[in-house]
Design brief:
Beta-Lactamase, alpha+beta, 9 helices, 5-stranded antiparallel β-sheet, 4 domains, Helix Hairpins
Amino acid sequence: MIKNSIVKRWAFSVLSVIIISIIAIGVFIGYFFRSQYYDSVRMTLNSRATSMVLYNFTSSAPMTDENFNRLARRFIDNFSDKNIMEVWVIDRNGNVVASSTGFSVEGETYPDYSYAKAGETGKGEWIGEMQSGERVMALSYLLPSADNSEAGAVRYIISLEDIDKQLYSIWGFILLLEIILIGFAVTSGAFFIRSIISPVRKINETASKIAKGDYNAFIDKHKYNDEIGKLCDTINDMVREIGETEKMKNEFISTVSHELRTPLTAIKGWGETIRTAPKSDEELINKGLTVIVNESERLEELVEDLLDFSRMESGKMSLKIASADITKEIGEVLEVFRARSDREHIELITDIPKSQIKLNCDKNRLKQAFVNIIDNSFKYNKSGGFVKVSLENLSDCVKIIISDNGCGISKNDLPRVKEKFYKANKSVRGSGIGLAVTDEIVRLHGGEMIISSEIGKGTQTVIVLPKNNKARRK
């Protein structure tokens, strides 16, 4: 077991507090009942001592030993509560001269008589055991004397045996109830803790597998729809996302390798051809050099995309902010694609204002973003299609709208097209990071890129750039 496990913390904190609380409550209830029962006995003794003694031992004759003994016998004979208590009469010398039981009390101790003589109230109480082993409560009450001399006392005694038996029964019931409550607390707590520990162990095991690269490790569905169940679902979703990302990363590496290999193969092949070709074959040499230049540019673009992606991932993509005419920058981008439009027989439609529209921006980064989107529109289109680029100059922002009638993007793929490594159509060349980089560039300018599409009908991308933006420099 783990040294600082949840079970140990629960046992030493929560469970121990519950057990101590239950025991403390049980002790309090037991003490309360004992106090109530003993107070009832005490009140009975006090009421008898106060009401009966004065009446029976009041005499106009001198209180001689003979007269005292006579009053004592009369008091004992007239005592009506012999069935519930025992009474003694003690003379001024501390000797018992009469007893309601009639039995000898020789050898008995009665500390309550000493307490009564020492106290200011004339009463003394004692709880203890008599010679027979019987547990009793006794109250001695000093008799009044006309000349303030000692005149003896009356001692009332009530057995506590029956009361103690009742108290033992109550304490036994309380103890049984405490054991049941503690057992319930332990059982329910253990069940609750186990309902946490078991899934946590599974989560830990699965997390260890994931840490070792097993992205097919999933946690079984938790039977409760609680925080742990949601945690299990979240981890499963995380594993799926990591698996998808890992898969896309591998596909990205494969795609980039292919994208690099293709132009390198073309460059190497035409380089060999030019080296072995006759110097007089200018047409072949020019064709080869054209291919080498074009493929080199393609390689440069791919490497630049990879560098931008690396900067984006590390948070180091920076902007060089300056005032620029956005219509001029888009116009320069469109000129690059006009030759491609003629070559691929895809109509390039433009709707760009002639007036200047100034923006604080990084014009090179924005041109890179425009190139990426327009390039996608051409790549995912076919001969006879169109790509339209328009610009709307609004009061608070500029909207660049790029639309086409190409193959479109499915509803499932559309929410993910701006994710790194993600490619909706794997049959078309590309690294899968162009839109991720483009979205980051637009976001750094304080803008927004909105993509809408429908399969078979085309795609529309809207870039919104605020005029009063505070472009972020990283």
